[in-house]
Amino acid sequence: MGLARMLAGALRAPLEGLMARWARIRLIEPEPETLSLEPTLPTLYVLPHPALSDTLLLASLTRTHGLPPASGRRTIGAITLPASTALPAPSRRLWRPKRRPAAPFLSLIEQCQRDPGRDVQLVPVSIFWGRAPGKRFGVWQLLAADSWQFTGRLRRLLSVVVNGKNVEVHLGTPLRLSELLDAREAELTNRKVARLLRVHFRRLRTRVLGPDLSHRRILIEGIVASPEVRRVIREVATAEQRSVPRLEGRARRYGREIASNMTYPVLRFMDGLLRRLWNRLYDGVAVHGLERVKAIAGDHTLVYVPCHRSHIDYLLLSYVLYRDGLMPPHIAAGRNLDMPLIGPLLRRGGAFFMRRSFRDNRLYATVFNEYLHRLIARGHPLEYFIEGGRSRSGRMLPARPGMLSMTLRSYLRGARGGGQPLVFVPIYIGYERILESGSYQRELHGGRKRKESPWGLLRVLGRLRQPFGQVTVNIGEPLSLPAFLDAEVPGWRRLDDPRPPWLARAVPRLGEILSRRINAAAALNPVNLVALVLLATPHHAIEASLLKRQLVLLVTLQRRLPGGRHVSLPEGTPDAWLERVLALGMVKRRPHPLGDIIVADGRQAGLLGWYRNNVLHLFALAGLTAFAFRHQACHNLDGLVALLAPGWPILTRELMIDSPASLREDLADMLAALVEAGLLEAEGGRWRRPRESLEAGEQLGMLGGLMQPSLERGYLLLSVLLSEASGHFTADELTARSRELAERLALLSGLDAPEFFDTRLFSGLVESLEAQGWLHAENGRLVFDDRLREAAQRSRALFDPALRHRLQLISRPEAG
């Protein structure tokens, strides 16, 4: 034994040197310097399973980063142990039952019991080889990379040789042995320590690799054989006079049409492919807040709910999660993307496909629900877009109930069986320039949506040399579904109804909260900042110097009074921001002897509207406060609250932001911020526009211009509604009439802004008025009382008399 140990020691030094030169660690998490090790205590590193390659790599890592060494042996009191050890692998002999040997901490525990002043810290370490092969990709990389199957010696050697340049190391929180001691029995503490470590390793492996992937065919057969699907097959067979075997075949076809076929090799292939794509398309992908996901990923079922702005969203989030050590989710994609070449690749990357509507197909709906339930029950991360489709206007669209309702029902079904908690992760994805900008503008102007096809992909590939700026991925505040249900439906755990009646109110409420949390994580970037300023000018032209000052104002306001909890701000200076927007071709610079002028032509202004709408909600209160001073030079706080309070809840609903606990307090804070910025003057409990500074007045006017379209849309709808007696309009009639007048007003004003007369915005306004109690329906007709007339009369002071006069003219029947 002594000779063997000496031989092993002699070989270890050159092997460690070889490993240090060969291996390259792609990701270390957390940074070793933040590990919070107690320097006075001996340190032992614990690996999940025995592997010489892992111990050699760990020795190199600790030496490089100045951590307690992981090579050699440690003498702790009267005990000498290897500096790095591993939990023993279970016995696999055929003639014996499978059993797990005892963990190697018993002697240490007994020593700590005898001598309470002696302690040890255990650091769990997980090492993954070849999870992201990067540029070197091929059959060997696929065979050698880590998966849920623990590797043998030969495959581990192959993994080190092939994938040694792409290694991930995850360091766990140190465990103090003294804190885990059980006074009754050392063996009990030994099992407790081993159990804690195994739970940690399993959660981390789940976080990085996701749950073990089942064979797709077996999964589909299990769905068809499930009690719910079998019941629906029998009922449909009776209703349609069809044979059960034939309907079973149909159910299998539905399963194959829906189910993803996620495989680790394709994930690794797509990682390398997407890295090249992002490097070609974008200047970089900035990610904020991912630590909130990593904190819960190991023991929660995650449902990622991003905003949907581009087809790139599907790929971008999966790439970011995989790059940063998290398992990519299974993604709900429209069946329109299941096209030749693209569909099979997306399916193997985790996409499962769904039809736009399956309300009238019970069997398809049941198969889809069962598939979704099995993903959730097994803890697979999911991703879907609660808006349904991509936003053509750039605004956050109202959440659709379909996927949220199915997720909630599936969770209720699993929660009664003790399933793990489910957490929604809101995600904001912000682009400086999107691929689909041209098609969005065409569709907003009435053009038909083009069907997705491989030829469309080829057109995109032809644009890869164009600049597209940077992308920002912001993680919002996660929402625990059990906590949401506890707040909204107390006692939900005691109910046993698979479709409880409270779903009808809980699902829309869930969608509203998630939409607001997505918006609360918005990213300000140079393009949307310039869009906010430039589109608030009458002719989409502004002096470059004034533009930069207004950019500073917007960022300063967000820094002092952020419009969301997890908003991110751009780095750099206003000069750099402007140059970036110019380089992307979003605006033009017109040189002039008295100072350059920044302009946007009609096409550019239309495009900029999309980017402005991404972040318009962040400036709702600032814009509304500034707008109040457009036609009234002076306000006190009481008068301002009375003026703005009736419309504020409707504005927050339209822009999907949280209402403040106290509008009065938030208004006072905003007024103080505007005074500090020099845009208002305070005197004796009143606030007024600056008397001397024309520039400050101009900046205040542009800030108020941010909310002008929303406010004028609401005023126009109220004008139409109040022009007739209560009960005259149905909701559809009011929406249609308001839209027609808005379009006419835009044409007469020379505005090329189809979003101003978007039908969905007017229907949303009607819903908001009903939700706030200003309207209610009787026999399909909208009924209101004098309170609405009085509120509308008070709000008239906000608007330009010329606008009020024009609305009166164009709303007359003879004007048509």
Automatic annotation (TrEMBL):
Record-annotated Phospholipid/glycerol acyltransferase domain positions: 302-432
UniProtKB keywords: Acyltransferase, Cell membrane, Lipid biosynthesis, Lipid metabolism, Membrane, Phospholipid biosynthesis, Phospholipid metabolism, Transferase
UniProt cross-references to Pfam families, sorted A to Z: Acyltransferase, GPAT_C
Signal peptide location: none
EC number: 2.3.1.15
Chief location category: membrane
Reactions accelerated catalytically: sn-glycerol 3-phosphate + an acyl-CoA = a 1-acyl-sn-glycero-3-phosphate + CoA
Stored InterPro entries: GPAT/DHAPAT (IPR022284), GPAT/DHAPAT_C (IPR045520), GPAT/DHAPAT_LPLAT (IPR041728), GPAT_PlsB (IPR028354), Plipid/glycerol_acylTrfase (IPR002123)
Alphabetical list of SMART domains matching this protein: PlsC
GO MF term list: glycerol-3-phosphate O-acyltransferase activity
Family statement drawn from the similarity comment of this UniProt entry: Belongs to the GPAT/DAPAT family.
Protein name: Glycerol-3-phosphate acyltransferase
Source species: Halomonas ventosae
